[in-house]
Amino acid sequence: MNTREATRKYRLNQWTEIIRECRSSDQTVSVWCAEHDINPKSYYYWLRRVREAACEALPSIASGSNTIVPVDIPSHSAKYSSIYQDSSPDILIHFGSVTLEIHNGASTALIENTLRALQNVR
């Protein structure tokens, strides 16, 4: 690690601690900054830099590391689909080009797995 990178990490750590202190107080940013003799413009600059560093540390969405969440559909679901074919769903969710119909007879596990899978759809 070179000197520039070490200095950057040191400053980010300092700024992060200042931001934590401010946010954990029950004061507004302007009041907290005034009490600690910090220019609010400096505080917001530090906040922006800390956020940028946090975003840079996140893994890239385009890295191909998308995970597939398996959805276990019970074998008796065909029986339920014929029962509910003529009835309207109790819950109807539109997510982009996907439409999800949920009937009262759906199992909790099926609903949980489906919603978990939908969390990963982009």
Automatic annotation (TrEMBL):
GO terms classed as biological process: DNA transposition
Gene Ontology MF annotations: sequence-specific DNA binding; transposase activity
InterPro entries: Transposase_8 (IPR002514), Trp_repressor/repl_initiator (IPR010921)
Signal peptide bounds: none
Pfam family, one: HTH_Tnp_1
Superkingdom field: Bacteria
Protein name: Transposase
Organism: Lutispora thermophila DSM 19022
